[in-house]
Design a protein that fits this description.
The chain is α+β, with helices and mostly antiparallel strands. It has a single domain, classed as RutC-like (60s Ribosomal Protein L30, Chain: A), CATH 3.30.1330.40. The strands form 2 sheets. A 4-stranded mixed β-sheet has the order 3-6-4-5. Strands 1-2 form a two-stranded antiparallel ribbon. Helix 2 runs parallel beside helix 3. The chain is globular. The two termini are 38 Å apart. The relative contact order is 0.21.
């Protein structure tokens, strides 16, 4: 009985150290970097490293308003998609500056359709440390009037992990 109690206490202590030990002493850090051996990025970061926090995944947001209506204008759809991302972030207590990754899916990809999402993105994110990003040209989305979908990932600090 005494041995079981000792073993149980050792397991609880080990679990406590594993769960809280390293994180209790380390503040959340998000590091954006661009290795010198990669080409200079234009409007995105090559690498984001996060040491801890809560991962927020946002499904592909399209250029529709609350009623499900989409503008025929591509730039307006890009702006609306980012507005939807901001709304989704706010719903979980996150901010646009918490974004670490964006994936763009663009129908009929051309120069205009590269520049318009960048302009919309730059009104929302930290342009000195932009999220890692991928932009893909795709066939039509799930509705023929939609021209862009943007997936997003953010990392937010959990209040209970903050240093005292």
């Amino acid at each position: 009985m005494k041995m079981q109690r000792h073993w149980s206490m050792a397991c609880v202590t080990s679990l406590w150290i594993c769960l809280l030990g390293p994180t209790a002493a380390t503040a959340q850090e998000i590091k954006f970097t661009n290795p010198i051996d990669l080409s200079a990025p234009n409007g995105f970061s090559h690498v984001v490293a996060v040491n801890r926090g809560k991962l927020v995944l946002i499904s592909g947001q399209v250029g529709t308003n609350k009623e499900g209506n989409a503008s025929p204008d591509f730039a307006a759809q890009a702006q609306q998609a980012f507005s939807n991302i901001k709304t989704a972030l706010e719903a979980v207590g996150a901010k646009p500056t918490d974004l670490v990754k964006l994936n763009f899916f663009v129908v009929g990809l051309n120069r205009e359709k590269i520049l318009a999402p960048r302009a919309a993105r730059d009104t929302l994110v930290n342009t000195k440390h932009p999220p890692v990003s991928t932009l893909l040209g795709v066939q039509p989305l799930f509705r023929c009037d939609l021209q862009i979908a943007i997936e997003a990932e953010a990392v937010i600090e959990q209040p209970w992990l903050r240093e005292a």
